[in-house]
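ESCALATION

Customer reports they have been waiting on this structure for their group meeting. Please prioritize. Original submission:
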Amino acid sequence: MKRATIVLVLIAIVSLGLAAESSAYYPVRVDVVKVFSHADGFRVIYRKGSADIAAVYLPARWFISGGKAELVRDHDSSFPYMTVFYKAGKFDHLRLYVQADQRDDSWGILAPADGVGKFSSDDLKLEF
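Update from on-call: job pushed to the front of the queue and completed.
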């Protein structure tokens, strides 16, 4: 009797899990090599494939409450990385996970002249 009850409970749990709605978001995890801070935002150098790297510019205005981006600072050994969320095939928002200590090798400073006009986009296009 106990065995039958356990089997029925497991079947119910699995059925509920299969019936649950899937998320509307599609997350993509991107390994970050270095994050450069700038007055207008962040330049993020990330791995593209297994051997190449690419850069993306994230405007500071995205990092406000309710904006398109969230900055997560911690002393986690898996940082830095970035999770980009797509909804219906289009960029929706992202989370940038960085080392809390800006003296870490994963941080850098972008010269003011190097960022002029590069933080104006409202969309994110990653290269893979």
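Sent to customer with the following note: The chain has one domain: 23-115.
Escalation resolved.
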